């Protein structure tokens, strides 16, 4: 489907299969039980707020990439497969650059207060690698509204792990 005419329109019902996972998702693990609880809530109460997606092109094909709402997407899939049909998610489509998508995803997850320090540091480190002159520890602390020392600790925690040095630059 060509989503370009739908950009900046009201929320759309998008088939679950047409929402691509978030390239910049900071959360590395989703606990199954809370997802099942959210799936039950979706079945009982419906979707309360839309997920946010952006148009991206992969191998010349336009698709929608999720920016915010990964837990809702996974819960909707669980609901659709095990509880009752739930084939679409109400989706707000935004025009976002990679950096804007990464920042929005990070903020959305930080506001939930349950990212691990390692997950936070992973994304802070990636922002710094993306544009070192712009994303100092202070700039990140200001952006996420946390103390500079907290962000510095998270970034240091990541640099002490061998896997972070193998992190793809486009992750």
Structure explained in plain terms:
By secondary structure, this protein is an alpha/beta fold. 46% of the residues lie in helices and 17% in strands. It contains 7 helices and 5 strands, in the order E-E-H-E-E-H-E-H-H-H-H-H. A 5-stranded mixed beta sheet has the order 1-5-3-4-2. A hairpin with a 2-residue loop joins strand 3 and strand 4. Helix 1 crosses helix 2, helix 4 packs across helix 6 and helix 5 crosses helix 6. It is globular and about 50 Å long. About 4% of the residues have low confidence.
Secondary structure layout:
Elements: E1 12-15, E2 19-20, H1 32-45, E3 51-58, E4 61-68, H2 70-82, E5 88-94, H3 98-110, H4 117-130, H5 137-144, H6 148-159, H7 162-165
Parallel strand pairs: 2-4, 3-5
Antiparallel strand pairs: 1-5, 3-4
Descriptors for this entry?
single chain, five-stranded mixed sheet, 7 helices
Please provide a brief summary of the model:
By secondary structure, the chain is α/β, with parallel strands linked by helices. It has helices at 32-45, 70-82, 98-110, 117-130, 137-144, 148-159, 162-165, and strands spanning 12-15, 19-20, 51-58, 61-68, 88-94. A 5-stranded mixed sheet has the order 1-5-3-4-2.
Poorly predicted residue ranges: 160-165
SS content category:
alpha/beta
Q: Strand arrangement, largest sheet?
A: 1-5-3-4-2
- How large a portion of the residues is in β-strands, by DSSP E? 15-25%
Rg of Cα set: 17 Å
Q: Helices and strands, in N-to-C order?
A: EEHEEHEHHHHH
Number of distinct helices: 7
Q: Could you tell me how far the N terminus lies from the C terminus, measured between alpha carbons in angstroms?
A: 26 Å
Report the average pLDDT across residues.
82
Could you give the count of β-strands? Answer: 5
Helical residue percent?
A: 40-55%
Overall shape: globular
Main beta sheet: strand number and arrangement?
Answer: 5 strands, mixed
